[in-house]
């Protein structure tokens, strides 16, 4: 499935909505694009047939209860993401295999760390340019500028040490990271360093999830929880 520059068909709008907002129900897509649910479902059926989209059961939300079966959510497949000009190819995989064979794990880790150096380089500049942004929002802007289509979502207050969740709807190197998880590990470590706190990677596109998600706990709530445990 290809998405040519300048082509703004409704089906491509549906696919792009899934790229930027992650797995969604047909109703949620319809609301975002101001379309009827029936129209969205027709396009989703074609995207499913093309192999660009897959239907999934929604992830359960802690503490959430409701009647009836929850609606399916739809997410882009690897084939669907390829239509958005992902910046990887077989040459990159072959190059990293060669690097791992000749330089071993230390060389591979150093490459991964250099690749994500933009996080620590750009974070202070973006933060200084817009002090109103939270640290997670600064990260989202940094990642978006690098092609990750990142956003921030608040974690439910019922979650211990609730804070924010960094969501990356697009990963320019997801196919490469599938074979070389060192890329994801270096990225997570860089996020921890710029925020000066422990963060947890909950899901990654490289391992089949619809979106890369990183849990960023609120430092004050984390401190309060630790005090409760000690007392």
Automatic annotation (TrEMBL):
Highest rank taxon of the organism: Bacteria
One Pfam family cited in the UniProt record for this chain: HTH_20
Name used for this protein in its record: Transcriptional regulator
InterPro entries linked: ArsR-like_HTH, Carb_Metab_HTH_regulators, WH-like_DNA-bd_sf, WH_DNA-bd_sf
Native source species: Nocardioides fonticola
Coiled coil regions, renumbered to chain: none
């Amino acid at each position: 499935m290809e998405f040519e520059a300048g082509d703004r068909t409704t089906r491509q709008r549906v696919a792009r909505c899934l790229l930027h907002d992650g797995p969604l129900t047909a109703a949620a897509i319809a609301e975002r694009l101001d379309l009827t649910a029936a129209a969205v479902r027709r396009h989703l059926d074609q995207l499913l047939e093309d192999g660009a989209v897959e239907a999934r059961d929604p992830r359960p939300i802690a503490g959430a209860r409701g009647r009836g079966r929850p609606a399916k959510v739809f997410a882009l497949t690897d084939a669907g993401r390829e239509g958005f000009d992902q910046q990887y190819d077989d040459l990159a995989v072959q190059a990293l295999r060669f690097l791992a064979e000749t330089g071993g794990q230390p060389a591979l880790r150093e490459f991964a760390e250099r690749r994500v150096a933009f996080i620590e380089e750009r974070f202070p500049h973006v933060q200084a340019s817009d002090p109103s942004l939270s640290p997670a929002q600064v990260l989202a802007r940094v990642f978006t500028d690098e092609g990750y289509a990142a956003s921030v979502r608040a974690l439910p207050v019922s979650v211990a040490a609730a804070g924010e969740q960094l969501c990356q709807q697009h990963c320019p190197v997801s196919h490469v990271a599938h074979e070389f998880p060192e890329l994801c590990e270096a990225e997570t470590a860089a996020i921890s360093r710029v925020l000066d706190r422990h963060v947890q990677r909950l899901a990654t596109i490289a391992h089949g999830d619809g979106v890369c998600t990183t849990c960023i706990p609120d430092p004050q709530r984390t401190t309060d929880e630790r005090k409760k445990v000690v007392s």
